[in-house]
Specification:
Residues 21-154, 183-322 form the EamA domain. Belongs to the drug/metabolite transporter (DMT) superfamily. Plant drug/metabolite exporter (P-DME) (TC 2.A.7.4) family. This is WAT1-related protein. The chain contains 13 helices and no strands. It is mostly helical and 371 residues long. It has one domain. The model is unreliable at 163-174 and 364-371 (pLDDT under 50).
Length: 371
């Protein structure tokens, strides 16, 4: 029982990241439908962050009341910039790009995040890459394979798998809006850069403010304020966009606010703090597989061979990167153990030396006292 609990504890970050990707896959489908039905992306991001704040702020206040560090002006400014980068700018770029393209393509572009994050973390020395070692090669090759697999899913359809052939839906939500497709691609690629920056720059902030729930609550709250200001500036001539249509919109606000902001941001922050930025980013390819499957089931799109080939590549690349990360962690833990053992030896040696010196001096002092 103790061994199984230790294994569960070891794989907690992995399980949490898989759950986040499942939530993101559902978000791509639900949000795409709502956007096509007329939901405003600026207002959507604002309402989403309001819901997320209402969910996670009470938990942060209760659970981290005693361990929450003081919020200095410098830390607040850094959290403000994190919210601006990872919520306000990133999400508005992403959902605008999602509207102009489709769910599978938007999800596939997020698979560039591991590459951009890997480069950023390496340049900033948050991530170690010993390219001559097998573990370093595994991380580089695995990340490349993940991206390649995601691109195969998007760019190569291949023949339809007859066993899973579905009928065509009359409501096709995956039509690309012709002339707007290039703009959508640019917006999605820009969102990749901002999301990678958010993951990377969380590392120093999380160390200065090691209260994951409170940090997530602050980012969601600031993101809601920032997004609200942006929405007001962009849509001040059409106040009707703030009204809630009682169709799929409320579901998209609650679903994305609770699962994709409150829960997902907490998990991402926690994983970045415990496992590093590349570990948090490398799970993104999983959502592409899930979106492709969901589009087949929900929108009745056909499943093509390209999706299967891409999925196999993504899983293989993911395993390669995680293997490299696991080897890095083993070496780090071994180094810490050796350093701790060496320190203990030095302390014992110093105590023995001091005791020997006292034993030598004590008779002299005693003799002197008799004189």
């Amino acid at each position: 029982m103790a061994i199984s609990m230790q294994k569960m504890e070891k794989f907690k970050p992995h399980i949490a990241q898989v759950a986040v990707q499942v939530a993101y896959a559902g978000m791509n489908i639900i949000t795409r439908v709502a956007l096509v039905d007329g939901m405003n992306n600026f207002v959507f991001v604002t309402y989403r962050q309001i819901v997320a704040t209402l969910v996670i702020a009470p938990l942060a206040y209760v659970l981290e009341r005693e361990q929450r560090p003081p919020l200095t002006r410098s830390i607040f400014l850094q959290i403000f910039l994190l919210a601006l980068c990872g919520i306000t700018v990133n999400q508005n770029l992403y959902f605008a790009g999602l509207y102009y393209t489709n769910s599978t393509f938007a999800s596939a572009t997020t698979n560039l995040i591991p590459v951009v994050t890997f480069v950023m973390a390496t340049v900033l020395r948050y991530e170690k890459v010993e390219i001559r070692k097998m573990r370093g090669k595994a991380k580089v090759v695995g990340t490349t394979i993940c991206v390649g697999g995601a691109m195969v899913i998007t760019l190569y359809k291949g023949p339809v798998i007859k066993l899973l052939t579905a009928y065509n839906s009359t409501a096709n939500y995956n039509n690309i809006l012709g002339s707007k497709r290039v703009l959508g691609c640019i917006l999605l690629f820009a969102s990749v850069f901002t999301w990678s920056s958010w993951i990377t720059f969380q590392v120093p902030v999380a160390k200065k403010y090691p209260a994951e729930l409170s940090l997530t609550a602050l980012m969601c709250m600031l993101g809601a304020v920032q997004s609200g200001v942006l929405a007001f500036i962009c849509e001040y001539k059409t106040p009707s966009v703030w009204s809630i249509s009682w169709n799929i919109e409320p579901l998209s606000y609650v679903y994305t606010g609770v699962l994709c902001s409150a829960f997902a941001f907490f998990v991402q922050t926690w994983c970045v703090h415990t496992k590093g930025p590349v570990f948090a980013a490398i799970f993104n390819p999983l959502s592409t597989i899930l979106v492709a499957l969901l589009e087949c089931l929900v929108f009745h799109d056909n499943l093509h061979a390209g999706s299967v080939v891409g999925a196999v590549l993504i899983v293989g690349g993911l395993y390669s990167v995680l293997w490299g990360k696991a080897k890095d962690n083993e070496i780090d833990q071994r180094g810490e153990s050796e350093a701790e053992y060496s320190n203990n030896i030095n302390i014992v040696g110093d105590v023995d030396d001091q005791q020997t010196a006292v034993d030598i001096k004590r008779p002299l002092l005693q003799t002197g006292s008799h004189d």
